[in-house]
Design brief:
Among the domains are: about 1-55 and about 355-365 and about 390-430, no CATH class; about 80-215, no CATH class. It is elongated, with a radius of gyration of 34 Å. Helix 1 (about 5-10) packs parallel to helix 12 (about 390-415), helix 6 crosses helix 8 (about 205-215) and helix 10 runs parallel beside helix 12. With about 425 residues, the protein is α+β, with helices and mostly antiparallel strands. The strands form three sheets. Strands 1, 8, 10, 12, 14 and 17 form a six-stranded mixed beta sheet that branches. The two termini are about 45 Å apart. It has helices spanning about 5-10, 20, 30-55, 60-65, 150-155, 165-175, 180-195, 205-215, 260-265, 360-365, 380-385, 390-415, 420; strands spanning about 75, 75-90, 100-110, 115-120, 130-135, 200, 230, 235, 240-250, 255-260, 270, 280, 285-290, 300-310, 315, 325-330, 330-345.
């Protein structure tokens, strides 16, 4: 931490201070005020220090290494309606416990229109109706790093509801017959076994045969693409250039392209590689941000929207890992994705002879610390040898904040009588 001489001078005790005397009992008429001021001094000083550090621009970002990278939302958003088509399963715990749980298909209502059918990924999910979910890739979910994730997608592609021929599915599984409920229960049981490695069986014998068949025959399929995404979700570049590209990824026939209102007000346009404005796009389209020269530092975003089927095997998350849902079927559903552009201003060139940023720090420091003895003027030499870096603004801000803190603490200490002046001298009886 950068500490200036002014702060050190303000925080240090006065020369010759006797700490034993400072702890000695004071006369009754001075005890209350002195005790209150002494007790308040340390919290007040710490509060001023915190305020000075918080006020320094960019200090928090520099300490954290810059803003945290975040992934833009992509695809569909939906609300869970609940468990709709299901049977029963028997879950056997490692402790010997046995309990019966529902197993089957959930339904979700997509924002903007559309319906999804999903299975739970975790056996302990206990997904709650009316919970909001957003489409996601496997990364950051229980499927990330799970060697069986590709087999789970195979199960989804080769069972109910993707295969509506229940007679044919029953024949392949060696079951006498299957209903929608038993087929959903058997499929859910197979997913739980692959995802969690738990001991679970379908209560219906025909559903259990389906679960065994799916687990035994499951191959491996790759992770499916998003229903609608932009890649990357954030781009940056200098003014006077086309910032990008951002590539549209979707199975929709076409998507709308809409810049945010603030960007449009600043004159920012979303264009193609030739600089032509873009209002519609397709899979593989490349979008660029065209920012007028002279635009202040800032950001702009563009949202692409379309309607498509959410691929089987896409994951929906609610923020609770145990409640992750995986898509087994989809109607035509609304989807959206957003990309953001950032542009910095070119660094300002300081004219020759301009005062250095540290000049203000030196002046403020003079308020709270004695000026050093006069010596040879080396200001030109210091300016010539001082380099600049990306940390210079942060250091200057911290210095200003800490020097101001020193001045405030000195003013407070000057207003309050010193404790040792109120306390009796050692060995001298109070008057």
């Amino acid at each position: 931490m950068l500490v200036t001489p002014a702060v050190v001078a303000a925080a240090a005790p006065a020369p010759g201070t006797d700490f034993a005397s400072a702890r000695a009992p004071a006369p009754p008429r001075a005890t209350a005020g002195t005790a209150v001021r002494g007790a308040a001094r340390r919290p007040l000083t710490m509060a001023l220090l915190a305020a000075a550090l918080a006020a320094a621009p960019g200090a928090g970002a520099a300490a954290a290494g810059g803003p945290a990278a975040s992934r833009a939302p992509e695809g569909a958003s939906a609300v869970l309606d609940g468990l709709k088509t299901y049977g029963q399963a028997v879950l056997r715990g490692a402790d010997g416990s046995v309990r019966q749980i529902p197993a089957g298909l959930y339904e979700m209502r997509v924002d903007g229109g559309g319906m999804l059918q999903t299975y739970g990924v975790g056996v302990a999910g206990n997904a709650q109706p009316q919970t909001r979910y957003t489409e996601s890739g496997w990364r950051g979910t229980p499927l990330a790093g799970n060697d069986e994730a590709g087999r789970i997608r195979w199960v989804l592609e080769h069972s109910y509801p993707q295969l509506n021929d229940l007679a044919g599915l029953a024949k392949a599984a060696g079951a006498a017959s299957l209903t929608a409920e038993s087929a959903a229960a058997g499929t859910q049981v197979a997913i739980w076994r692959l995802a969690d490695g738990v001991r679970v069986e379908a209560a219906d014998p025909q559903a259990e045969k389906l679960a065994d068949y799916l687990q035994r025959e499951a191959g491996r399929l790759p992770e499916p693409p998003a229903s609608l995404a932009v890649d990357p979700g954030e781009v940056s570049g200098p003014l006077g250039t086309r910032i990008g590209p951002v590539t549209v990824r979707t199975s929709a026939h076409g998507v709308s392209v809409t810049p945010d209102a603030a960007a449009a007000a600043m004159g920012v346009r979303v264009v193609d590689a030739e600089g032509r404005p873009v209002s519609v796009a397709a899979n593989g389209s490349e979008l660029y941000f065209e920012v007028p020269v002279g635009t202040p530092d800032g950001t702009a975003s563009v949202t692409v929207r379309g309607s498509t089927r959410v691929p089987v095997g896409r994951v929906f998350t609610s923020g609770v890992p145990a409640q992750v849902q995986i898509v087994a079927g989809s109607s035509e559903s609304a989807a959206a994705a957003t990309a953001t552009a950032r542009w910095p201003q070119p660094p300002a060139v300081k004219p020759d002879g301009a005062p250095a940023t540290g000049a203000a720090v030196t002046t403020l420091g003079g308020l709270s610390a004695p000026a050093p003895a006069a010596g040879p003027d080396t200001s030109e030499e210091r300016l010539a040898s001082s380099g600049s870096s990306a940390a210079t603004p942060v250091i200057a801000s911290l210095a200003v904040g800490l020097v101001v803190l020193g001045g405030l603490v000195v003013l407070l200490l000057r207003k309050r009588p010193l404790e040792e002046d109120l306390a009796p001298r050692r060995g001298q009886a109070p008057e």
